[in-house]
Specification:
Elements (H helix, E strand, L loop, with lengths): L1 H12 L8 H7 L47 H17 L10 H18 L13 E8 L22 E11 L4 E10 L8 E14 L3 E13 L9 E3 L14 E9 L3 E6 L4 E6 L1
Antiparallel strand pairs: 1-2, 1-9, 2-3, 3-4, 4-5, 5-6, 5-7, 7-8, 8-9
Helix pairs in contact: 3-4
Subcellular location: Plastid
Protein name: Plastid lipid-associated protein/fibrillin conserved domain-containing protein
Pfam family, one: PAP_fibrillin
Amino acid sequence: MASSLIHSTITSSNACPQSAFPTLNKVVGFKHSHILFPKRRRPLILLASIDEKVPTSDSTTPSFPGFDLPEVPDLTKGDTLKSLKLKLLSSVSGLNRGLAASEDDLKKADSAAKEIEKVGGPVDLTADLDKLQGKWKLIYSSAFSSRTLGGSRPGPSLGRLLPITLGQVFQRIDTLSKDFDNIVELQLGAPWPLEPVEVTATLAHKFEIIGSSTIKIIFEKTTVKTTGNLSQLPPLEVPQLPEQFRPSTNRGSGDFEVTYLDSDLRVTRGDRGELRVFVVA
């Protein structure tokens, strides 16, 4: 009798009904009739049952009164530009700066350039002039595919008067002094048994910004410096042709548009229709 009374007392006063944690019972998957910790607080975070659908998070940014969430930067454009830069560089690689480009290669390079120009948007040199500063290496020119130094209005043909091998081409830009130098490495053929002569020709210009993205260059002089075995010779300034003998289409100046510009890549389209791609040297 005493034993039955004690058991009855414990069951009625200390036992917690099965429904005390209905959600937990459903997740774990077993039933129990007694819990030894009746006064323990219920958990703050409720567990969802395995057969219940958990609502997906809302993609919209929640708002909290009196608290402004920091703006999340849009990385889509930056990632796209990185991908398009790789595409452009891949399309012009292996073309020997355009000298080995076929018609199909020209179309691919032009298409890749147009894509990055579209995503990059208009160039504003009045705000980004400092990005021009420095030495740039030419990695592609559509004009070189015709074996000339021009574009739709080509200049002199390479190797017609002398056997000339074109080396690296650079542009050196000083935004403070407004100096704009085209630097061309050349190898001039010589009759046997003489060795070819290596020279560096520097075409010095001044430049000015026209509008927001166009650069006008004004020719000043050409200086030729021998390199290699003849590097000890002093530089030679090439005299200009008399005014009456200069071509009427080119009075020592020209202009081109910068269609894409960042810290390490520059794309330009010239007044002769040529596409040029530069990287920081």
